[in-house]
Specification:
The chain has helices spanning 15-23, 41-50, 70-78, 143-148, 162-172, 201-218, 221-245, 249-264; strands at 4-9, 30-34, 56-60, 64-66, 83-92, 99-101, 104-106, 113-115, 130-132, 138-142, 176-187. The chain is an alpha/beta fold. The chain has 2 domains: 4-187, Alpha-Beta Complex (Spore Coat Polysaccharide Biosynthesis Protein SpsA, Chain A); 201-264.
């Protein structure tokens, strides 16, 4: 059996979900639960990786649980030549035949992403692996590749876009980011909508901020200028209008503050 360490960041109050996830991890794999309340998501993932002994690292959030055989299927794809990241397809917990997250494609200049197979009927999907730009929620990385890149960039992306940044850096090394439709987890998530939403001020702030830091980090100077002049106003207007439509007026301030801090290069890891 290939050694796989399962890194699970968790929070207080989610003990039932964590127990359900742990019950679906087969014996022989190494679960590592990180519940340090002083750390945000990327730092929890990095902390768990430092404790791992596996050849592969499976990062999975605590609001998921695994279909039988999911880890083995992900390992099978991870062993393929030039594969750096393998994403597990996440189906909705309450609609187990529908895809909640099938990976994403990103336009690196505009910063906008599009979901692949989102809300598709899983039983009819081809079970052949397919390439994407980035993954989230549940994904596997070879430990040597992860350590070569020093893990998640928790300074710039403590939450939100931490996975996207890792995938971009792995692609820069010449590896592919693949989704494995035969490897499934079930995610306790809301039905996907094209209209953006945020659960709390923290997410609104970091999405506004981290988008700017991501573009600054991964674009050359000319492309970044084009992004700021042409596409940033579209991003701000679209998200602000979405929050107005959802009547989440209080989150608009946090989102816009994040955008301003991102443009100024602010990299504080906490936000109150």
């Amino acid at each position: 059996m290939v050694k796989v360490s399962v890194i699970i960041p968790t929070m207080l109050g989610r003990e039932d979900m964590l127990a359900r996830l742990l019950s679906t991890i087969p014996e022989g794999y190494e679960p590592i639960v990180v519940g340090d309340e002083n750390l945000l998501l990327a730092a929890k993932r990095n902390k768990g990786a430092k404790l791992a002994h596996g050849e592969y690292l499976l990062f999975i959030d605590d609001d998921n649980y695994l279909m039988p055989g999911a880890i083995e299927e992900a390992v099978r794809v991870a062993k393929l030549l030039k594969v750096g990241v393998v994403g597990l397809v996440a189906c909705y917990d309450d609609r187990k035949n529908n895809v909640a997250d099938g990976g994403s494609k990103r336009n690196y200049l505009t910063g906008f992403t599009s979901g692949v197979n989102t809300n598709a009927y899983w039983p009819t999907l081809s079970k052949s692996p397919y390439e994407v730009d980035e993954v989230a929620n549940a994904f596997m990385v070879h430990c040597e590749t992860f350590y070569e890149l020093n893990g998640f960039d928790e300074k710039n992306f403590p939450i939100d876009l931490d996975e996207a940044d890792l995938c971009k850096r792995i692609k820069t090394l010449g590896y592919k980011v693949m989704m494995c439709p035969a490897a499934v987890c079930f995610h306790k998530s809301q039905t996907y909508s094209h209209i953006p939403d945020f659960r709390r001020p923290l997410n609104a702030y970091f999405m506004g901020r981290n988008r700017q830091l991501y573009q600054r980090k991964h674009l050359d100077a000319l492309s970044y200028c084009v992004y700021v002049v042409v596409f940033l106003p579209v991003f701000v207007c679209f998200y602000t209008a979405s929050l107005l439509w959802r009547k989440k007026f209080q989150l608009i301030f946090h989102f816009l503050k994040g955008v301003a801090d991102g443009l100024s290069g602010c990299r504080k890891n906490q936000y109150q």
